[in-house]
Amino acid sequence: MSRADDLRIKSMNQPADTTGMPSACQRRDLTDWSLRGGKLPALLAWHIDECPGCARQVRRVNQTHASLALLRTQPTPRQFWTKSNNRALRMLRRIARASAKANHLLRIGPNLSRWQRARIHIARASLGAAAAFLIMFMRAGVFTGLEKTQDYGEALASLHWERHIDPDGEWFGPRDWA
């Protein structure tokens, strides 16, 4: 693998950064701390003093934790639980209706008499026959149309010959295009 390919692969693995600042290192202890939270380990704190990308990552994690903590302290609106419970109950009722109908449709079986089954087969056969006749008529119409077009073309060519190319019949006489 060439060096350019190696650099492209490395750049694809790193997160996209639009600020122009250096990106955070791919440190396992930083990822673990971001998920776990708590006090920053001493070795990681020393690295953060040296690496601006990791320091920015720690600031973002701290801001997120602070925002979540602030949300926990805020009182919920008065109608919040009522609205959310009503919407959840409506969704559950709709799912229950749909699943009951689906279960009913899956369990239902066609209890058709012999006459009803025969009518279905006759209808299928008649639709097939109608489609076949329609195709035959269309083919006949296309062939007839082509023949008529050929006849009209020959008549126009003959008229053109007689009027513009040899109006006096000096060279070949009347032209027969057939």
Structure commentary:
The protein has 178 residues and is mainly alpha-helical. Among the domains are: 21-73, no CATH class; 125-178. The protein has six helices and no strands. It has helices at 3-13, 28-36, 42-50, 52-73, 80-107, 114-165.
List the helices and strands and how they pair.
Elements: H1 3-13, H2 28-36, H3 42-50, H4 52-73, H5 80-107, H6 114-165
Instruction: Decide which structural class fits the backbone.
Output: mainly alpha
The total of helices stands at 6
Fraction in beta strands: under 5%
**Oligomer state of the chains in this structure:** single chain
- The count of DSSP E runs of length 2 or more, i.e. the number of strands, is 0
Can you give the mean pLDDT?
79
Main sheet makeup: none
Radius of gyration: 42 Å
Question: What are the salient characteristics of this protein?
Answer:
mainly alpha; single chain; 74% helix; elongated; 178 residues
How is this structure best summarized?
The protein has helices at 3-13, 28-36, 42-50, 52-73, 80-107, 114-165. It is an all-alpha fold and 178 residues long.
